[in-house]
Write a structure and sequence with these properties.
The protein is an alpha+beta fold. The protein has a domain of 129 residues: Sandwich (Immunoglobulin-like). The strands form 2 sheets. Strands 1, 3, 6, 8, 9, 10 and 11 form a 7-stranded antiparallel sheet that branches. Strands 2-7-4-5 form a 4-stranded antiparallel sheet, with no helix packed on it. Strand 4 and strand 5 form a beta hairpin. Helix 2 runs antiparallel to helix 3. The longest helix has 40 residues. It starts with 10 loop residues before the first helix and ends with a strand. The relative contact order is 0.14.
Length: 229
């Protein structure tokens, strides 16, 4: 008579023969409110009758439990508040579409012959020398702007070089210094802040925060905006 071989071994080995692994239950490495309360209950159940838990220690543990519960509730409340603030900021930023924004920049990606309007922050009344350099660092235009006083001074460039020719598309750097000094002889710390004005086409929600997409200039973080309108 033929016999059927019996199976031996544990359930884990049977699963292994079938090519199935036994999944281990993942355990959390942090203690929650339920865990904390469970530990306190077990402590009371297993305390030494001859040496009961000191009342002050018990009250201290209750205070710790209340603190843990309060922190957990506060974290939930802060998360909800952050979500509301982010939504509110997004709605406010969307209202900027169609308006002009002034952003501080060092370089620009311009279309061929594109004009530029903006402001230079002068340190005092007097001339301000402005150099516009191409991507290779070669100067394409030098201009002089007269500042009436310290502060914002309007600036406009028609997108043409010193010979009157329209510039080709590319990246351009603007360097401005006080007086008639050659900007090429001044380090970056001596340059005057320069802001460009452009229309807000749209608003993007990035992982780093909100960004304004400016016509002809690209995307800028909301923190780079110096003025609207």
């Amino acid at each position: 008579m033929s016999t059927i071989p019996g199976t031996s071994g544990t359930a884990d080995s049977s699963f292994s023969l079938l090519g199935l692994g036994v999944q281990q239950e993942e355990r959390s490495s942090t203690l929650g409110q339920a865990d904390f309360l469970h530990l306190m209950t077990e402590q009371l159940k297993n305390q030494d009758p001859l040496k009961p838990l000191d009342s002050q220690q018990f009250l201290g543990q209750l205070a710790q439990f209340s603190t843990v519960q309060g922190i957990d509730s506060m974290q939930s409340a802060m998360g909800a508040m952050a979500s509301v603030m982010e939504s509110d900021q997004t709605l406010r930023a969307a209202a900027l579409v169609g308006h002009d924004a002034l952003v501080q920049v060092d370089s620009l990606d311009l279309a061929a012959g594109a004009s530029v309007e903006g402001e230079i922050t002068a340190t005092a009344a007097g001339p301000v020398t402005v150099d516009i350099l191409d991507a290779n660092g070669a100067r394409v235009r030098r201009m002089t702007v007269e500042a009436g006083a310290a502060g914002a001074t309007a600036f406009a460039w028609d997108g043409r070089d010193d010979a009157g020719n329209a510039i080709p598309a590319g990246n351009y750097t603007i360097r401005a210094v006080a007086g008639n000094t050659d900007p090429a002889t001044v380090d970056d710390n001596g340059l005057l802040p320069f802001c460009v004005k452009a229309n807000v086409d749209s608003v993007s929600i990035e992982s780093t925060g909100l960004a304004l997409n400016l016509a002809g200039l690209g995307s800028f973080p909301l923190s780079a905006v110096r003025r609207i309108g």
